Amino acid sequence: MHEKITTSKQIENAAEEFIRNFFSYYRKLPNDKIINEIDNDKIENLRKIGIPIQGRAIDTVVNEMVEDIYQYGNNVNHPRYLGFIPGPASMLSWLGDVMTSAFNRHAGSWVSCPAASCIEQELIGWLCDQAGFTEKSGGLFVSGGSMANLTAMTVARDKILSEETQHLGVAYVSEQTHSSVAKGLRIIGIPDSRIRRIPVDSYFKMDTDHLTCSIQKDIDEGLAPFIVIASAGTTNTGSIDPFEKISSICQRYGMWMHVDGAFGASVLLTKTHKNLLKGIELSDSISWDAHKWLFQTYACGMILVKNRENLMNSFHVQPEYLKDLGAVQDSFNPWEMGIELTRPARGLKLWFTLQVMGSDAIGAAIEHGFQLAEWAEDELKKNKEIEIVSPAQMAIVNFRYSPRNMTEHQKDELNQQISKKMLDSGYAGIFTTEINGKKVLRICAIHPDTTEVDIRNTVRLLNRYFEELVSFQRTE
Q: Taking the domains of the chain in order of start, what are their residue ranges?
């Protein structure tokens, strides 16, 4: 029996139909629920599909993917999805992603993809300029912040530690540092017993006095401190560590300073808030995610280093089967600067977005996030039962409903229930986190299409759920 052949014309027709339907879905998204949950029966039906021996009609499969797969889950592109940082994606980025996937260039080397490699290098150079790095700087597009942090920590280990001292290496993070950092440190051979979690101050910034004491103590015990990971916009609170003080400490002890800017480094493109990241130019490396606050589709992260030779020293290889694809003069092969050999041209969709929008428009969209968090805090302060746990900064505000007659445990349960009622309503994505041992509600508002009305109505609906829950408890 002959296998079923799907013609290019059938694929073209299916693609055109999908695009029409997708744009219709996108226009209706603000009126849709935040989360579309899938039941067990639908999951079981998906498991039963299996892999057919003979192919099926392309229209049928496309419809199944749209209706039975993509339909379910969290609508992170929704303007009232205020739960997590990744992240609303621009339709321009989507289009750039479609074009990059369509041509399917292997972007591991300059020779195999010279124009795309040129664009990525120029864009990395421009991003380095925004960070205040010098002409020796460079970097690479990677899948995201986790890979960027892992890459930077590998380079730091190779630069600061010798093979004989790697087993003594110690890394320093704050209590608010992203979980990907500890994961990456373990991957490069730094166990939990040599990861120091430095306390934060009342503004959730790394306490540099504790940092200095911890480093000196480890030196006195014969260990080898090699890296401090600072944060430019922590996930929980949006706090920014004191870069200038941390840099001074790193220089004093001969250590590497990395800044996890996966979320907050995008503020470098703003006009009104760029000063918040003063001192980031003193770091040795920066991780930065475009699929967070630069509104790109997954997966688009960047690792920037002050001296690109450090990347080459850690990752340069040239086996015999790749010699024909070696770098030409004045160019760099991406596979010699990072972990991946085969990689897509991830930077092209960001370049495309910037070309169409311009950097000023991107910066204004980022600034809008600051304004959204300020509107949220203003509305929250109207309710005396609300405690602002972490004030608005970097588009994030943390708060909790805190009636005086409740225990801390009861307050935790109350705020968890309020979040659940909001999520069940489908109106807005408000999730919980924990800060200083308290269960709190968190608003992270980075969507450029979110309005003041969206924000204030969300807070008012939270207030209503609070009153309903408290009233119900009183009648029990």
A: 8-75, 106-354, 360-475
From the list 148, 231, 157, 230, the residue with the least C-alpha distance to 190 is: 157
Indicate the class that CATH gives domain 360-475: alpha beta
Nearest in space to 280 (alpha carbons), one of 129, 132, 178: 132
Q: What is the pLDDT of residues 166-178, one digit of tens each?
A: 999 999 999 988 8
Give SS3 for 410. helix
Pairing of strands 195-198, 224-231: unpaired
**Contact of 440 with 398, CB cutoff 8 Å:** yes
pLDDT tens, residue by residue, 442-458: 999 999 999 999 999 99
* Region for residue 220 given its phi and psi (left: phi exceeds 0; alpha: psi -120 to 50; beta: otherwise): alpha
Q: What is the CA radius of gyration of the chain?
A: 24
Q: What are phi and psi of 48, to 5 degrees?
A: -80, -15
Q: Which two tokens stand for residue 46?
A: 């998906």
Question: Three-state SS string across 313-382, please?
Answer: HHHCCCCHHHHHHCCCCCCCCHHHCCCCCCCCCCHHHHHHHHHHHCHHHHHHHHHHHHHHHHHHHHHHCC
Look up the CATH number of domain 106-354. Answer: 3.40.640.10
Please list the ranges in the chain whose pLDDT falls under 50. Answer: 1-3
